[in-house]
C-alpha cells in the first residue's frame, strides 16, 4: 500500500475569538434578532487534519459556542426552538487521509429522528481528490415539543486512526408547531405563503459579517417586509400579511473576491457561495442553488466550473497565455428566484526576465 503523504497527524491549537453583533428589526409582528450572529459559522477556523464544517442552523436561537480540542474537536451550541421546522445545512470538507464520513442527525420530542450519512474514500485518498459535500437536513417540530437536538459529525480515516470534528446542540422550548395541527398556509422552506412574496437576489463580494450585516441585504429585507406589513386591507390582520419566518425571501451570491492577478502558470483559490436568507433573519447555505462559471478566453482555466450551494475552485493561468485579461462570469440560480450574474476580473502579470551577459576582458 502506498504511503499517504498526509498520514502525519497533528493537534494544533488556534486562537479563537468572536464578536457578537445584535440588530433588532421589527416589522409588524416579525423580529430579526439575536439569532443573526449565531445562526451559522465555520468550525474549526482552520482545518483540523483536513477536516472542517461550514454550518447554518435555522428554526432556533443559539447561544455562544463552547469549543473543545483533542482527538475530536467539538463545538456545542445550545439554545431554544423558535419555529416549526429545524433546518441544519452547510458543507463539510475533508482534504487529507484515506477517506471521510459525515453523519447529520436531528431529533425532536415526539418526532421520528432524521439522519443523513455519506462517505468518500477515493482510491488514492483525499489529498488528490478532496471531499466537499453540501448537506441540508430538516425535521418538523411537533406542537408543544419540549426539546430537540442536532449533530454534524465529520470523521476522517488516517494511517494512525481516526480524527473527528463535531458540531452539535440541544434546543429547549415549546416548539413551533409545524406538525399536526399547524397552519398549512405557513409551510417552511418553499411552501406556499398567505400572500405572494418575491424572492430577490443580492451580490456581495467578500466575507459576510453576522449573516446579513453587509451590503444592502438587511436594508433590502427590511424594505420588503415593511412594504408587506403595510399592505393589509379591510379586515385582514397584520400577521396574515407576514411570511413564515423560515421561508426563504432572499438569496445572496457571494464570491470571495472580484479580481485575481496571476503569474503565468500560477493558480489561486476562489470561493463562490450562495446563501439563503429567511424572513426570520437567518442565513443558511443554499444547497439547492446552482452555480455555473464560464470564461471567454483560453488563457485561464477554472476547476470545478459548476456545482450547488458552494464551490471551492482553483483558477489557473496558462504557461504561455495568448491574452492577459479575461472575465470569469458567475451565474447563480435559486428555486423561485431566477438567476443573477457576477463578473470576476482576471489578469496575468508577465514575468520579467533579467538577462546579464558577461564578457571577459584582458587588460
Strand content: over 45%
By DSSP, the count of extended strands is 25
Briefly note the CATH topology name of the domain at 39-182: Immunoglobulin-like
Distance between the termini: 65 Å
Counted by DSSP, the helix tally is 3
Q: What general outline do the C-alpha atoms trace?
A: globular
Strand count, sense and closure of the main sheet?
A: 8 strands, mixed
The assigned structural class equals mainly beta
**Low-confidence sequence ranges:** 1-38, 175-196, 211-219, 226-240
Percentage of helical residues?
under 10%
Radius of gyration: 24 Å
Mean pLDDT: 75
CATH architecture descriptor of the domain at 39-182: Sandwich
What does this 3D model show about the protein?
The chain has 363 residues and is mainly beta. Among the domains are: 39-182, Immunoglobulin-like; 252-348, Sandwich (Immunoglobulin-like). Helix content is 6%, strand content 47%. The chain has three helices and 25 strands. The protein has helices spanning 35-38, 217-229, 238-241; strands at residues 25-27, 30-32, 40-48, 51-58, 60-62, 66-68, 72-76, 79-81, 85-94, 99-108, 114-120, 131-140, 147-158, 161-172, 200-203, 248-255, 259-262, 267-278, 283-285, 290-294, 300-303, 306-308, 310-317, 325-334, 338-348. The strands form five sheets. Strands 5, 6, 7, 8, 10, 11, 13 and 14 form an eight-stranded mixed beta sheet that branches.
